[in-house]
Design the sequence.
């Protein structure tokens, strides 16, 4: 087969770079704060056009340029976290954030190269396969999350996880790119893009049926109050504000208890002391729970000594019941350079400058046993743990019928960080068919139904309490995704490896 006849003619040169950058800007528009989610369905088209027929080095560079510009534009808030609250020198902060931007961009670079190895016809199927495979290898599946506020579209996540939605997005992109290639050849047919749109439409109709079936099944109502304390980051652990911070949460909790919810939730690290270690403040919280008669789930730091007398600090979530029963979950997936310092010998300056502001000596937890909430087992994930699906899946496999995410996004100011993190929550709900509660210090707090619908999202930097009732579906067979995890993504990895090897053998025979 003569592969060259499938290539775009001409020397695209600087035009190719412009197309790659256009893809980056379109993809930025599909993510918060812009949120033009439909743009994702054609954001990769310019890149696919640009890399067609290019040499490997050129395709790699085009993909790298797109990825770097996209991540720099979408994750700009990392600079705020490092400079404003991490107290890192601005120039050093820029240098530090360039490293993750470059690393993440490498996957886009590989995608562009692999797509360039395909004929335009092959790319219709293989581009989404390669893309999902690379996201799986990276360990975070994120592209499909742009469609987080379209419940009918994301119900497929109960089978495939985010990978299935990412596949559909790239599938449509590749189909459009193929149509443009046909137009260049003077023989354009709308059959392929129409087929891609038909697949998307079928997925939406199927998703609507899944949502309807879920609503008919009913379930157990649970009313929760989410307390958004809106405490400035520089006051949270300042001893001068300790009493004021705690009193704000206690006053809001007493007011919420008057509405008789089944659960009250505070955000991550809401308690400005070591619960159980400080008798005065611990007693104040226990008294408020006892008087209000409502279980309280709240974030705070825990302190204990290990077998050898060593000090251990945990980022934890505590469950305090009116009858005095208490349970604790310790965060498992810690933030590197925030809650712990990897390669401390080489990054000693983080210990000096960042650890004073955040718990750089945090110990990771190990248990995914749910916490009891008024007869309902609740799994808890703290902050960005929720973006990794394995944790929620493990909690539900251990009997959780409700997931709670407590977080503190004050680190990122009025940026898109909180909205971007929220994108993952509907997928965790759909993947496991459980509702999800999110309590954030400065927002966005929200309720997520088992079908992935976001209810009552709060604005940023407002002190408020929101009360809502979610329906916990009856216990039934676990979802395919909950049972088998990333099987679809692993299948894409296998397909990508097979196609890569087969393509290499085909090229070798062609040269011979």
Sequence:
């Amino acid at each position: 087969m003569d592969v060259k006849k499938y290539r775009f003619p001409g020397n695209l040169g600087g035009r190719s770079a412009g197309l790659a950058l256009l893809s980056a800007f379109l993809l930025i528009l599909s993510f918060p704060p812009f949120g033009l989610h439909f743009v994702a369905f054609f954001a990769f088209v310019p890149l696919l056009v640009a890399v067609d027929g290019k040499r490997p080095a050129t395709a790699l560079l085009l993909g790298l340029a797109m990825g770097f510009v996209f991540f720099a534009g979408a994750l700009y808030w990392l600079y705020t976290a490092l400079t404003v609250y991490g107290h890192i020198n601005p120039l050093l902060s820029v240098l530090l954030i360039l490293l993750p931007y470059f690393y993440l961009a490498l996957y886009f670079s590989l995608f562009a190269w692999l797509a360039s190895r395909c004929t335009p016809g092959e790319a219709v199927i293989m581009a989404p396969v390669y893309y999902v495979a690379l996201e799986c290898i990276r360990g975070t599946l994120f592209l499909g999350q742009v469609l987080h506020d379209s419940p009918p579209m994301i119900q497929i996540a109960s089978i495939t996880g985010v990978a299935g939605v990412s596949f559909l997005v790239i599938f449509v992109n590749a189909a459009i790119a193929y149509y443009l290639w046909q137009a260049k050849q003077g023989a354009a047919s709308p059959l392929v893009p129409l087929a891609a749109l038909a697949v998307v439409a079928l997925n939406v109709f199927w998703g609507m049926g899944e949502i309807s079936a879920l609503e008919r099944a009913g379930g157990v109502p649970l009313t929760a109050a989410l307390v958004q304390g809106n405490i400035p980051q520089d006051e949270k652990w300042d001893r001068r504000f300790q009493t004021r911070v705690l009193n704000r949460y206690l006053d809001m909790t007493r007011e919420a208890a008057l509405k008789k919810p089944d659960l009250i939730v505070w955000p991550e690290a809401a308690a400005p002391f070591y619960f159980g270690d400080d008798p005065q403040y611990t007693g104040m919280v226990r008294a408020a729970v006892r008087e209000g008669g409502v279980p309280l789930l709240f974030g705070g730091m825990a302190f204990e000594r290990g077998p050898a007398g060593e000090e251990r600090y945990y980022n934890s979530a505590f469950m305090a019941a009116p009858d005095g029963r208490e349970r604790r979950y310790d965060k498992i997936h810690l933030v590197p350079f925030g809650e712990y310092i990897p390669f401390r010998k080489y990054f000693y300056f983080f210990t000096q400058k960042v650890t004073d502001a955040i718990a750089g000596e945090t110990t990771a937890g190990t248990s995914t046993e749910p916490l009891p909430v008024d007869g309902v087992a609740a799994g808890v994930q703290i902050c960005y743990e929720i973006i990794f699906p394995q944790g929620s899946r493990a909690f539900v496999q251990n009997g959780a019928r409700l997931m709670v995410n407590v977080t503190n996004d004050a680190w990122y100011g009025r940026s898109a960080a909180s909205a971007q993190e929220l994108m993952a929550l509907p997928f965790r709900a759909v993947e496991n068919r459980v509702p999800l509660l999110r309590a954030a210090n400065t927002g966005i707090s929200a309720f997520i139904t088992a079908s992935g619908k976001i209810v009552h999202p709060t604005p940023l930097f407002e002190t408020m309490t929101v009360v809502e009732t979610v329906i916990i579906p009856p216990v039934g067979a676990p979802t395919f995704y909950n049972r088998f995890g990333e099987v679809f993504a692993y299948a894409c990895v296998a397909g990508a490896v097979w196609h890569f090897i087969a393509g290499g053998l085909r090229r070798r025979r062609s040269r011979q």
Notes: The chain has a mean pLDDT of 89.
